[in-house]
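Proteins fold reproducibly. Take a tokenised chain:

. . .
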Amino acid sequence: MIIDILRMLFLGLSLSAIIYNLYAIYGAIDFFREEFKQEQEYSPPLTIIKPLCGLDWQIYENLASFCEQDYTQYQIVFALRSLDDPCFKIAQKIQQDFPDLDISLIVNERTIGNNLKVSNLANALTIAKYPILVIADSDIKVRSDYLKEIVKPLKDPQTAVVTCPYNSLVKGKVAIFEALGIATVFNPKIMVARKLEGVSFGFGSTIAIKRAVLEEIGGFEAIADYLSDDFQLANQPYRRGYRVHLSRYIVEHVSADVKLADLFARQLRWAKGVKSERFWGYVGLIFTQLTTNSLFFLLLSQFSLFSYLVFSISWLIRLLMAYIVGAVLFKDSLAKKYLYLVPLRDMFDFVIWVLGFFGDTISWRDNKFKLVDKGKLLLIEEL
């Protein structure tokens, strides 16, 4: 009896996941078909804030790409917490190599909350000159038209935030495995959320925000204790009635030499963060997991002909969605080259999703935290 109930449950879950995957294709096609129209050029002076901590792969090239913008007037602020940070010398070299640019470097240990990246941002804000702020993580690389394109939607008085999706430039097997999840799971999820709920989120790849709106939500102090600072920077203005624009401009996330243990810890930390912020949305992810749902149905049905049919159709649709959204529309080369690894990546995500339900503690940046009150960080122990 229990087996029959479970079999019917996973059949239903498989069918719901098929619908989800097909809807992700529709959402992605709609996203790239819908063009943002801007009748006049809009290029206000702006400040780029780069919070720095440690060395990323190709860190110099990443930072330099923000210095090679085809844009009239902008300032760059590199923010660190310590002179001993190895990224300090890289930031100094960037200053030397681009002497004609307005580049500032601030080193300040002032802390305003448990998220030290946000403290970096707050410290950088003290010397930011302009009313538009562009925040991007240090592992992001962009093309020369980046600023020109992402700032245009901010001409609309109701648009407060612009954020960008991203592809991956990686080296190493584990980094490839992680990036495959971005191309074939994360980006499709964004496309579905955009169609069903609208854009109420932001990514560390890019947050372009009006300074006046940042001040309205309480400044960086308002998000200083949240794990997902990028989500909060977009979501809090959204909840105040402002519009968040998801740009069609795709940036590159650069990653290499990722260790499997680090990947596991990072994915689990993100999973627990999502669970803390949006519990029922996290529970609902079971309806999206086509690979594992159909596999469980196949096993519970003892490999019957019908279950084989459901399983085969499910995996075909899953791979089709990954290819269309990841490889064709987002033009992610990894999604095409490593398409055969998608089922394995899905199973890894399922394990992470299950483990995410257990406990609310995470380790992050040499500290141990408990997640409370929709994603806030409560310091438990300094490791």
Remarks:
- The CA atoms of residues 59 and 139 lie 7 Å apart.
- The chain has a mean pLDDT of 94.
